[in-house]
Amino acid sequence: MNARHLVRFRGEESETPAILVFARAPVAGKVKTRLIPALGAKGAAALHRRLTRQALTAAVESKLGAVILFCAPDTRHSFFRRLKSEFGVPLRSQQGIDLGERMHHAMAFALSRHRAALLIGSDCAEIDPAYLHRAAARLNSGDASIVLGPAMDGGYVLIGASRLDCRLFHRVPWGTGRVLAVTRSRLRELGWRWDELATLGDVDRPEDLARLEPGLLS
Q: Class for domain 15-213, per CATH?
């Protein structure tokens, strides 16, 4: 294996895991586009803002370790500035051509400073502090170096790692129902042990709205 592909914790900063929250700027017509037929462009963007706040709330309230908000396309949107002030979290821009590159870059950054990293998006309303604690516990046990939170649509709502290889994210068919299957295949190829949490649901399509609590839709 080429050493440049593998990232391991170097131990400079923290034994606690970092929680990375990925979010896009809530620009109407640019986020939650598959929900626009049901909510309209402004309604879909408003839901995205509420889901992002909920993800950050779960991360901060877990008290597992540092929480970092990774922003797309960058950190300049006023929404991100408000979140920085409201939650006391640092902001970093997502870097990379596609989602896989952006995730790998963020995880590599975190693993250079922390023993483990948990990455979540802002699409799943069901992630709570207990779910994050279960993910961290699986990594801390030493039985697995990767933990996945499967999504009902064939993707995943969480990935946690204590080590990393860029092949986990390279040429994955993001946005399709094959993401989880491809990721499992890559882990088998690497010979890495992984664990999986309970399956949760993303909120991507109009039919997913039925799973939301009423307060998230108002």
A: alpha beta
